[in-house]
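Fold these two proteins, one after the other.
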Amino acid sequence: MLLETLDLLRCPFCGTRLSVVDNAALDRGPERIESGVLGCECCAFPIVAGIPVLIAGDATRDAMHALEAGRRDDALYRLLGLDAARLDAFRELISGDRPPTYRDLLPVLCLDAEADYMLHRYSDPTCLLVEALLDAVGCRGRALDLCGGCGHLTRILLRQPACIDAVVADVHFWKLWLASRILAPDCEPICCDANSPLPFADERFSTVLLSDAFPYIWHKRLLAGEMRRVAEADGAILMPHLHSAHGENYSAGDTLSPAAYRDLFAPLAPRLFDDRGLLTALLDQRVVDLDNPVSPADCGDTPAITLVATRDTRLYRRHDAPDRRDATGVLVVNPLYRVDYRDGISRLTLTFPTPEYEDEFAFAKRYLPASVTVNGDLRGALTPTGGDARYAELRRRRVLLDLPRDYC
């Protein structure tokens, strides 16, 4: 955790400032705190592996006691939630001859089908839409990726030219650990519960992004008010892929009607957009069309909508979607493709991890071809220059992805 982040943080319970406790748990450099304890006027919180954990619970308390006893590894293992078998596997991975990849670590840290979703996040239609939305709207200062998980979208925020820094907040410590080590190492991870008041001072974020997660939050009214509170006066609140109560969704969560979502952000006069319309315009016209909002009545049985709330009405227009040819990480074949290389030719076959995944993300077939044949060996990382147009169409169609190093 950067020392300057202390000015941003507030206790989620009493609202007072946090300060660093000078005790045996403290591992502090000139700019960062790797481990330690933060205190406020009501309680204390640990910093483990550079991540402040602003949650009250047994695991948090145990981790703090382990830090104070000098057992920093035990504090990390407790917050990662590892049982004996997974702890052995984790230790083996991190002590190996090479750094473990995101793909290596997911089966150890994630125990359910969400692992497939998180591995292939950069392929799915929601990520395609969010990436285009962020490229269109941009970020003019500090960004907050709320319920940001492993930092897939945080990485997209950080590449915006005017983004100063990005905070990724999530209730799952292990996701933030992966975000800070692999997906978005320049981010500032904060472990907190979005069902409680957010642990941030007022009006600190120019962009507040909450993608995919809002229907799973129980205290929606509280969170909506908190998002408005922490956003700057002319900032933007972006909420892609809100599951509608009037449509069919996999793992729908506790959905609301489009009108109810809109009313939660009424002070900012939010606008609603049908995700199907946004994606169709993006694929067919290469535009992000924020000039044609829909009314709640017009949403019909659409499965999901996008909400944009900002006083900066200049954002509400048609934005051209850029074709990115540079790479911030490594350019590789999408993990959804099986690559067969023979006689100087790579044959790529689209292969979904499960029938359920294929059904849920069927829209991806609009841009992911079933098979591709390409001259050359595509089994490893590719290194085209920024002006190299050979792979432009494959990147546009998500056959090739710009992924973080050590992703897969």
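Now the second one:
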Amino acid sequence: MTLTIGDSAPDFTAETTEGTIRFHDWIGDSWAVLFSHPRNFTPVCTTELGYMASIEPDFAKRGVKVIGLSVDPIENHAKWAEDIAETQGTAPNYPIIADSDFAVAKAFGMLPADTDGDPTQRTPADNATVRNVFVIGPDKKIKLVLIYPMTTGRNFDEVLRVVDSLRLTAKHQVATPAQWKDGDDVIIAGSVSDDQARERYPDGWDAPRPYLRIVPQPKD
């Protein structure tokens, strides 16, 4: 099963580097970012986990929880965390799921349902499809899916930008244009009628086309 935007994120119970969690309970009323890795001790993933640790406070102040996943036993995660700290300058400061039975990867459609066996006998190439980013809302619905090849490091600044956009949409019913950055002008969502928009934006808006209604970014 391939998950896409709007689907409910699967719930699961899993062992992590910060103890056993029930995923939906762990998310609570927050947003969440789940990002997955094909195996421990892989070079690109090592840089990703380190960089995510360095910007985790930026997610936290937005009410976003971060969690990693690797198809490896829990005992390997501690040693990998040491390598990440030594080579990247920041150790993971968020839980990492030990998905050694492939249950989470299969539930999220990242591995075939018949995948089994000893995870330590699988190569990263065997798990090459476990390279996703999922942004999940407080309603437990999937809001974003990104899939990367093993050779391309993920841009977590972009994930943070998307989170800012998603939170604006949820709170203010606006959309964000191409190349938008926090503080730039936004677009009134198509679900908002002109009459509703006049109530929200009494000073009006710029409209180069009737369907393209541009306003300053609303304040939180």
